[in-house]
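User: Modeling request: complex.
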Amino acid sequence: MAEVSKEPDLMEQVTNLCKRRGFIFPSAEIYGGFRSTYDYGPLGVLMLRNVKEAWWRSMVQLREEVVGIDAAILSSPKIWEASGHLESFSDPLVDCRNCHERWRADKIEGVCPSCGSRDLTEARPFNLMFKTHVGPVENEGTVAYLRPETAQGMFVNFSNVMTTTRKKPPFGIAQMGKSFRNEITPQGYVFRTREFEQMEMEYFVPPDEGQRWFEYWCEERLAWYVDLGIPREKLRLRHHSPEELSHYSAGTADVEFAFPWGWDELEGIANRTDYDLNAHSKASGVRLDYFDQATGERYTPHVIEPAAGATRAMMAFLLAAYDEDEVGGEKRTVLRLDERLAPYKVAVLPLSKKEPLLQLAHSVLAQLQPLVMCEYDDTQSIGRRYRRQDEIGTPLCVTVDFQSLEDNAVTIRDRDTTEQVRVPIAELDQAVQQRVCQ
Ligand code: ATP
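Assistant: Request completed. Predicted assembly structure:
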């Protein structure tokens, strides 16, 4: 087991910071909150976008054989019937006969976590899909579901995408967006919520290449988290045992992170064989296969699926980045976020609120805003402003001082080393880009 936390209360420190600084708020807080749902605040929305942008960049932008889609969230029951979700997308639910709490049987080992009683009901399947009605009439014919995963959008659009893009296996379809699951026990802050964001890719390959691509994607996906700053020793790849595998899977591995409560899943990578395309083909009567004109061969591609959670990944990045150190004899909290993930890349800080310093500071801000996400702050002492930026992970502070009025230069301070360098305003764009635009 890796060293799971730098401090036993890491979780509390990170959740406090998220609330205090505007990353994540409990939803409907003025009404006392709403059932483990969360709202992403001014910093959270930026960071979550950055997580998704980093994923999109590595999975779509930098790959010639992968394209993206954005499918509907409200979806036809036919999709979920064919995929097997209507019948079996369920968790085993038990009631505690003593305190009447409900639990996921597979997560509690026969003991009620609330009151310690072993007097539990038999487990029964509880379907996790949110059901709703489309249009003004509520009857069986108007039922729709909020998607519980983004993956099916890729399977049902397989032919649309293949013909419009003229792709041939191996090729991938990627999608990120909201998914909904009526989880029995949401837990671990944004680790498990009923509304969350996923980042999934379906990679269609010739049937005999499934195993090779499965191994390839396991390594690629693990490397993505390392590249974005999670230490390798806080990550592991856990292969599912044959008993654990879903019936359609020829191999599944989870990328796990050392959360404060222990190893837990960040992402699942599965070799789903031809299960999904066959199921939708059978149910819709539409052929979902590939005809190779060069060889005259027709086959149903196998699918490798790396399925990640954006909100869950954001939480892992925050936990891994949280640090405390000492600067000038004072304790400071610092989020050592990779600059690609940091909400703001630069904070522009005038040393004083006096004119003409403010005017110069605003013109420096206006110069940098088209390049990167910037914050501007002219309140409190400069030391406190640096601490505030350290705490939200801003990699660079640009300080405009009285000297700047004379020499047309500003100071750039580095979050991690706290080192400061003087840079002419005319060269600021380049200096900032070099440091924070990879
Ligand atoms: P679990 O076993 O934790 O319920 P799962 O194996 O059912 O998850 P998948 O269906 O493989 O999860 O979903 C892919 C990814 O989507 C997960 O690895 C996770 O990052 C994310 N995810 C799934 N359910 C939730 C949720 N309720 N809240 C936040 N993220 C989730």
